[in-house]
Amino acid sequence: VSMQVFWCRTFILPVSMVKKCESIIRSFLWFGVGDAKTAGKVAWAKVCQPKEEGGLGIKSMQTWNKAAILQLGWEIVIKKESMWVRWCNVVLLRNIRFWAVKISSTSSWCWRNVLRLRECLVRNLLYSIGDGSATALWLDPWINGEALFSRYGTRMVEDADIPLNSKVSAVIVDRQWV
Length: 178
Description:
- By secondary structure, the chain is mainly α.
- It has three domains: 60 residues, no CATH class; 59 residues, no CATH class; 52 residues, no CATH class.
- 48% of the residues lie in helices and 2% in strands.
- Helix 1 crosses helix 4.
- The longest helix has 17 residues.
- It comes from Cephalotus follicularis.
- This is Zf-RVT domain-containing protein.
């Protein structure tokens, strides 16, 4: 299991690899040996459901892989104290917000996959603004999962006369708009 966890947290596994691995698991589950080619007795999606929902609680590799990569993105967002997060901030982000960094042709395959999953990550985040000093006003997706800059563009930043790198605390003080 630890080998699977390592690879799932490192790469988005190719679909063909996931299908082959799950095929081997299904075959073992139903027949106990090798690579049997007959159909399973229950749909794989049902087997992968939690036990409380009638499944066997076997994790779908594809879902597990996506969740593991999303966790990497989450660790960057919360600025988890880890060597990997520090390295990402220094080497990959270079003082650009995680939400604002562009996917470039020079990005590694792994990094591109983390960045591509940002949309999925942001749909599942709930921002707690607090005093607003940790949230970027224009670049973080703190309003309904979307960054103000993405929605309104450069013109809005210019019209508001509030710098692009401003924090939410620049416009909200003591829970009031200023």
